[in-house]
User: Fold this.
Amino acid sequence: MSHQPAAHLSGAQYPQEPTRINFKALISIGLAWAFDAMDFSILTFVLIDIMKDYHVPLTLAAAVSSATTFARLGGGLFGGLLGDYWGRKMSLVVSILWFTVFEFLTGFSIGFSLLFLVRILYGIGMGAMYANGTPMLMEMMPAKWRGLASGLMQSGFSFGYIFAAIIYRNWYGNLGWHSMFFIACIPAFLVAIYIWMQLPESPRWKAERDERKKNSIPISELFGNGNTWSTLHAAIISIVAFSVTFPINTFYATLLKEHGHFGASVIADTIILLNVAGIIGNILGGYISDLIGRKTTIVVSAIGTLACSFVFGYITSDVIRDVFTFLIGLFSIGGVWAAIPTYIAEHFETGVRSTGQGTTYHFGAALGGAVVPLIVSSMAASVGGLAHAMTYSVAVASVLMIVFTLMWRESKGSQL
Assistant:
């Protein structure tokens, strides 16, 4: 993969140390991703409610989350195209407002078919948000701090899961599951307003805008000029990374409720512990990736995930459950994902970065994040239950993560 120098670059535009604008971008885009993840994660807490209210089996209830994740691919593609053509900032704000509207409408779903449709439309906005927010942040951060920024942003997903757990713990019992979606849509709307008013456009995108043909289609460049393997590898890494974590994100609360017979407080506390560990792992992993590289950070984290993947069979033992919930959160939700945003961004040049990152990341979401959970739920009965299915899928995905990460060059220090 080649990196062409951008036009009109200056030290003022690209400082070596973080500036106030960099911090504003990190906080606001990180929060946008956190609230996006919060809205997405609430669904995992109410799968059993969906099954009961709409009289559908677990596989069909889980298909709502999978359909949302498939829709993220379309959002990542079209949102990325808009971001490369129209600019990161405008596309980011529009995508946040889009998923906020359909998050609100989720609460009005009076039937399973309507719920299914609304969550598909929500997924389009979720995909577009990541396709623009991540490249914008990576382009605005100094190179030597990009890994840490990547980890901090990615920790937003864990924060979002924690926020969802807090909403579930405090309001589910009194307000019911529909009202949780009304509450969840408010913070993202406020962040969209803040980004519009406080953040500038990505200076890297602006600097190269005049060098590109305004009517060019970025997606055609993903498989030209020697970029084919870069694009394919980014997609493969995304598929495997989602395969590592999404069985956990999708089914852990259900496993605790259905097989552990735990109440809302224990379920919420366990999910919070998992994601606190994920936050620590993301921040630590992002920092370490700036020191030892993206590849080593991902490989070591995948090995740690593999070693802890047996935890799902021991959820009734409080000590084992809590210790290894923390560890698997540290390594999988944290370490494996800490370097992914910058690692994928470093696969692509500026003119195709939103399209490339949005498309490959959400292609991974569609297959690893949507198909793998369906496989897990489908094979649960034949392998001894959901706990065994989760263990096998996470373990296999961890091994594949190690193999495919070793097939790519180190990208630490790449100039975006």
